[in-house]
Amino acid sequence: MLGGGARAAKPSFVSYISPEEIHIKEPIEKEVNPRLLPGELLLCEASTVYKYMQEDGSNRGTYGKLVCTNFKISFLDDDSASDDNEPQFKNKIVGENDITLQCVDQIYGVYDEKKKLLTGQLRKYPEKLIIYCKDLRVFNFCLRYTKEEEVKRIVSGIVHHSQTPKLLKRLFLFSYASAAPNNTDGRNQTVMFETLEDWRDELERTKGNVKYKAVTTNEGYRVSEKLPLYFVVPLCISEESILKYEGRGIPIWCWSCHNGAALLKMSTFPKEQDDSTSQMQKAFLDGIYKTISKPPYELLKLDDLSSSLPSLQDIQTAYTRFKQLFLIDNSTDFWATDVKWFSLLESTNWLEIIRRVLKKAIEVAECLEIQHTNVLLIEESATDLCCVISSLVQVMMDSYSRTKSGFQSLIQKEWVIGGHGFLDRCNHLHKSEKEEAPVFLLLLNCVWQLVQQYPPAFEFTETYLTVLSDSLYVPIFSTFFFNSQHQRDTNKSGESLKTQSGPFRFLTVWDWAVQFDPKAQAFLNNPLYAEKPKPDKSQRKTARFKHQRQLSLPLTQAKPSTKRGFFREETDHLIKNILGKRIGKFINSSDEPPNSLKEFYDSWHSKPVDYHGLLLPRIDGPEIKVWAQRYLRWIPEAQLHGGGTIATAAKILDLMEEVQTLQVKMDEEHSQAVSGDVHSVPLLRNSARLSSLFPFALLQRQSVKPALPTSTWKDLEDEDDLVKRDDEFVDLSGDML
Predict the structure, then answer these.
(1) Taking every annotated instance into account, which residue ranges of this chain make up the domain Myotubularin phosphatase (predicted)?
(2) Among the listed residues 358, 298, 311, 313, the one whose alpha carbon sits nearest the alpha carbon of residue 593
(3) Could you read off the pLDDT of 351-377 as tens digits, one per residue?
């Protein structure tokens, strides 16, 4: 027994076992082979690879095989061979441990605990491999116990096939199209806008056929390879005008409002021209403007998006900063960034860009709806921000675009056939980062704001938007892998793997049965979709769910906490930099919006919502939120146990089922007409077993409470009572928000 003044001796035990060996799950004994799709080839593999679990800072994980094919990178363990405990929302093409080559964002190697970006030829091979994905997953692999030759092959193979420039026809899209059987069900209701009839039907649907016409001038792509085969122009525009400048300077119809006002778009002429050419082009444009400003056409308002919205470079920079907040390696990284969450979120400028885009869409809607004015969106190519604004305006003003088939038809019309450069903007070929910009993802973020503000107005769910964003990186669909209709059509012909000549049979992403079985597809459909307008104003108030991280910047100062903590300094910083400026309506603009626009915005929000009429997004400070499901779904620390939107949906569905049960008893015939949708979201019983990450993750993966060294506390907070503690670690569990 020690004396009163004696200190306990320091532990003399030293462990020579690595953390990986402490939490070992025995290497698999049986051979596990990857499930290959038609046309998929195994390129390289490595055995005895240790995959870390992402959700905590420990070194828990499992051994398995890491493989690389011409389609994906895949980790195979003994669970890969069985179908037990499969998630109910399972993608049939891309598994939980699969990463398509196009989904790889960056690859880092760890050398002596230092991370280094891996590109090109490697002289030295890492002991750990970290893969950051564009869908924000992070994979950590330990190669310490893998044979040296296998390490060289797998690391070189992964870096080469996912990071180096490639030719278009080297994409897996072509291998799959030539080898896969053409057995789609063909029941897709999406309008593809590949025929003249599709455009005429759309003109008739929107009553735009009185003043506008579908033209065949570009058949054979004789006008321009950037334009679609068929498009719509004002009746007064002649074929000669279209041919004169290869389609530039021609107003192209997007959509007609119920009052006859139309939304148009136009690509500009090249900026560097000699004086005589510029004068000719100016005279040509003046003639076009005068022609479409006379009766029967409404007044025309020009809107140059390049001067009124952020540049593509600004959008790319903002998103690059924003996504770094969610590419989390472990719990320690999560809580370290959580300390500065508000300032980090604001500094990315991503939410501000979303706000500005939504505000621009409101401006356009006001011109069409209130002023009865045609709006002509102008952009250099009319295939980027024009697509965003025209799509948003239609989602806000046309209830058909808020149905699933209508929204898919809208994407086909404005983006796929409209000529958005998916190949370049997503950098699928890794040819030029200068062309990369998340323009389509920006649209989905804006639409999500509307979906979460007005859930009953949409036939689809946020899960639908999330899997649609994931589908950007699945190269078995042609939808998001070409820059134009011309590029797709000219690459359709080729030799199949079965030595038979013939065109490739490209799949469309709108055939959801390729990725999901019927039960999983049910998560894409909104069971609370309003079939009729609901004028009750109380319906508009959507619940706000508390989260470990607030998902929007606050509008007014929060009530100060009675307990001082390490968030104090951060909160003070936030108050000075944000709250002190008093965020009002239309937060982004230094200049106040025109009175007519503000009156339009305020007037609409003072009335009950017609879910099948005009929808205007709320763009006040805290109303623009982070798309939690997409950005936080892989971070267990961010989950709300038994909470989130899924818990609310489960309770509402229970009530709906009770109502329908009573209805069945009252009128059996009528019950057949109203039943069905309630059961469209399976297994929402016992919502306490679910979390806010559902359906992408269940509650089975528990998050380990963080423990930060005292030295970290010293950096974060100058609290004497914490600094003086003798404990080596301080548990944060009692101070979490």
Answers:
(1) 193-631
(2) 358
(3) 999 999 999 999 999 999 999 999 999
How far are the Cα atoms of 210, 215, 263, 266, 646 from residue 260, in angstroms, in the given order? 9, 20, 10, 19, 41
To the nearest whole percent, how much of the chain has pLDDT over 90? Answer: 57
How many separate domains does the chain show?
A: 2
Q: In what order do the strands lie in the sheet with 128-133?
A: 98-100, 72-76, 61-69, 42-52, 138-142, 128-133, 104-111, 114-117
Residues 70 and 204 in one domain: no
The pTM score is 0.83
In a domain, 531, yes or no: no
Spatial distance between the Cα atoms of 220 and 485, rounded to a whole number of angstroms: 11
Q: Are residues 265 and 119 part of one domain?
A: no
pLDDT for 82: 57
**Residue 452 counted as domain residue:** yes
**Which has more confidence, 178 or 562?**
178
Q: What are the pLDDT digits (tens) for 482-507?
A: 999 999 999 987 544 444 456 788 99
CA dihedral angle for residue 701, residue 704, residue 706, residue 707, rounded to 10 degrees: -160
Task: Summarize the confidence of residues 317-343 as an average pLDDT.
Answer: 89
Instruction: Check whether residue 458 and residue 393 sit in a common domain.
Output: yes
Q: Is 498 helix (H, G, I), strand (E, B) or coil?
A: coil
Tell me the C-alpha to C-alpha distance, in Å, between residue 558 and each of 206, 541, 546.
47, 21, 14
Taking residues 282-295, report their average pLDDT: 86
| Residue 30: pLDDT band with limits 50, 70, 90 | low
Identify whether residues 265 and 143 lie together within a single domain: no
Closest listed residue to residue 618, CA positions, set 552, 524, 556, 527:
552
- Assess contact for 65 and 145: CB atoms under 8 A: no
Query: Which long-range contacts does 10-19 make (Cβ < 8 Å, 24+ apart)?
Result: 18/59, 18/144, 19/58, 19/59
Q: Is residue 313 scored above 60 in pLDDT? A: yes
Q: Are 404 and 395 in contact (CB under 8 A)?
A: no
On whether residue 143 sits in a domain, the answer given is: yes
Pair 440, 310 in one domain = yes
- Domain range for 107 is 42-164
Q: Are 136 and 245 contained in the same domain?
A: no
Instruction: Please state, rounded to an integer, the average pLDDT across all residues of the chain.
Output: 81
Q: What is the 3-state secondary structure (H, E, C) of 298-313?
A: CCEEEEEHHHHCCCHH
Residues β-bridged to residue 212: 234
What is the distance of C-alpha 67 from the center of its chain?
Answer: 27
The per-residue pLDDT for 498 is 43
Give the Cα separation of 184 and 209 in Å (integer): 33
Tokens 């002190």, residue? 580
CA dihedral 231, 466, 521, 455 (to 10 degrees): -90
CATH code of the domain in which 76 resides: 2.30.29.30
Do 392 and 280 share a structural domain? yes
Phi first, then psi: what are they for 111, rounded to 5°? -120, 115
In a domain, residue 412? The reply is yes
